[in-house]
């Protein structure tokens, strides 16, 4: 048998070819990672024009007031709204009746409009009320003049004038209806409520780029809302922010002397505290490694963001980090968050509360999903807000009550 002799040149050539192939694979992988990160970054700052209907409507029994659903989170405790037919239909869901782990039967409290029995897909929402007319008290449609133009708002006065207003700031992808749950607790405590809209939320004027600033641009509209409240009799103001609205509220406090001059306190519900942490968490739900999510953070903060996401300017995510800037706050806060949020990790809220235990009353919920704390525990949620607002109305009230103080 003859042995084949392999020359050194052949070996070297094969090694070079292998290295070249690996380099090419690495280059392709880097391109794929970059594309995924860009798509993710663009999704984060682009307002959704249509919400995904991720719930399957299996069956509807109108006479029995029952509906069978399949999908993620369809077994959440509490009462919810159910949108269907691409937003053309709306129903109200009560508590879970039965579940087999896949199909969930819930009480059907009523159908407001649309033909639910014909629907095949839907989405659940924390909003149970469609407008302030359902609260059962007087309200008025008003307009807040922002730098971009007139933004619609609802004003719900307290039973007796007090000069105390709560300015409600809804979250990403939501509208003013999200905050209606807080109107009655505020009113019981003697506070007016101003439920505002802000740029790119589908009601207020759009910005030039039609993109979210994650709090870095929207805060200016909250400043305008506070100015409106003060011009119409507010002597003391509490800001309440939901989800991204929490980030917006915190930025208005940090950036506006006018807001701080009127501010008595801040309420945060499922707030966006640490965007880098949120992006990692949300990336993981799509199966993305932290490296990709961290790249998204760098993209949004870099000049390249203008070209690849449509932003008018990069977002300074460091300036939005409320934990890093916790020492700059000097106003009492009520912070409500859930261990089972599923969208915004509670870790950011914990770190913020730990950084300022002298200011922050931290209330932890369980089994409640993102901005759905009221839905899961309405009596506790409403009681916490009402009691905290009563304390804020008392001159010289201490910052801390009997709530859990993180740390």
From TrEMBL:
The lineage of its organism: Bacteria, Bacillati, Actinomycetota, Actinomycetes, Micrococcales. Keywords: Hydrolase, Membrane, Transmembrane, Transmembrane helix. It comes from Agromyces agglutinans. One of its GO terms (molecular function) is hydrolase activity. The chain crosses the membrane at residues 12-41. This is Alpha/beta fold hydrolase. It comes from the Bacteria.
